[in-house]
Structure formats: C-alpha cells, structure tokens
Write a structure and sequence with these properties.
By secondary structure, this protein is of the alpha+beta class. The chain has two helices and four strands. It starts with 27 loop residues before the first helix and ends in a 12-residue tail after the last strand.
Length: 143
Amino acid sequence: MVTQSRRSGHPSGGEDSSGDPAHDNDGRTIAMQNSRTIALAAIAGVILLSSAADAQRRDNRCSEATAAEIARLQIDPARIGAISYRAQRKSGGDDGGNRTTRVLAWVDLVDCTGNLVIDLTPSCIFKQAYTTDECTVEGLSSC
C-alpha cells in the first residue's frame, strides 16, 4: 500500500517513513541547515578576526620600546613604512596554556627589500635587533 505524504501529496513522500523532516525532499530543511551553517561560519570568522585584532593590540604595547630602539639606532623616520607586531607563543608547559615567549616588531624599511626586526621580551624589554634580506642598518647584523 502506498501512502501519500501530508506535505507534497506525492507517493514518494515529502518525508521519509519515520516522519523526520530532516529528510524533507522539497529542500526547505536543507536550505535552513545551509543558512545556519553560513551564519555559524560568519560568527566564527568575526571571533577569529577579533582575536587577531586583540593579539595585535596586546603586542602594540611594545610600541614605546620599538620607538626607543629605532631612535637609538638613529634610523631616519622617512625610511620607516609600517610597523607590525607578532607575538611568538609556546603552548603547553606547567601552566598548560599559550604563553608569549617574545614579541617581534617588524619594521618595513621603504628604501630596501626587507625589514628591521626588533626582538623584545613579553614585557617589551629589548633583546636584539637585526635586518633581513637587502636592508642594512649600521651596527646590526643581517639574517
């Protein structure tokens, strides 16, 4: 005996024999699931971007130490493009979480291909500085 679905009136049914709307053949449930998936992905993206922005703000706390090192090296401000900060983290350990092991200030120098890198402790104390690629700064080694 063939029963017709209450929704579509089609013998193949708009639902499976269990009455589960997740198996709805008309696509509405699938569209709703796709909409939820897209919404969750968008929310996750915003959270990740917020986390990245928060990390950048935390690392910017070293901007004074970076400026002091640039001044000590007597680098002409006209040579400086952008400055970005990257925290290097180590996971695990006794505290079981991520902890910042150092902060690197990457200073783009506009007159060469490469960067000035200022290596700082997590509390923004200067450790070392070096240049990369073709950039040179008097008194610094290049990596």
